[in-house]
Amino acid sequence: EIAQCLVGSEMCIRDSKNIEASGDKDNGGGPGMMVMSMIYWCIMLSANLGVMNLLPIPALDGGRLLFLIIEWIRRKPMNPKYEGYVNMAGFMLLMLLMVVILGHDIINLF
Questions:
Q1: pTM score, two decimals?
Q2: What's the pLDDT band for 24 if we cut at 50, 70, 90?
């Protein structure tokens, strides 16, 4: 079930929308279910963050791992100056993506 939710299965999304914090017996579990749901979301957020961080994008851990693989193949270290340029460019692209997504969310809000 957890593996299905990692890819965003419809069942997990549907179940997460039915959570209530009121504690009524009609809501399918009360406060205990709410705590379990919060723990579940923390686990899913942590797993997704770990996977995203390992993508080979400069300025993330996956980007550093990619540089290490390139150094291993070439058998000599990369020039730190060029590595810094690539990481800065990757960071700027990530920030640009963040601004675009934030703008899209603000437009959809209104």
A1: 0.59
A2: very low
Classify each residue of 43-53 as buried b or exposed e, where b means 16 or more C-beta atoms within 10 Å of its C-beta. ebeeeeeeeee
Greatest C-alpha distance within the chain: 65
Q: Which residues of 60-70 are buried (b: 16+ CB within 10 A; e: fewer)?
A: bebbeebbeee
Residue 19 dihedral angles phi and psi, to the nearest 5°: -85, 130
Phi-psi region of 102 (alpha: psi -120 to 50; beta: other; left: phi over 0): alpha
User: Between the CA of residue 2 and those of 14, 43, 49, what are the distances in Å?
Assistant: 14, 9, 15
Q: Count the Cβ atoms, other than its own, within 10 Å of residue 5.
A: 19
Higher pLDDT among residues 27 and 67, named by residue: 67
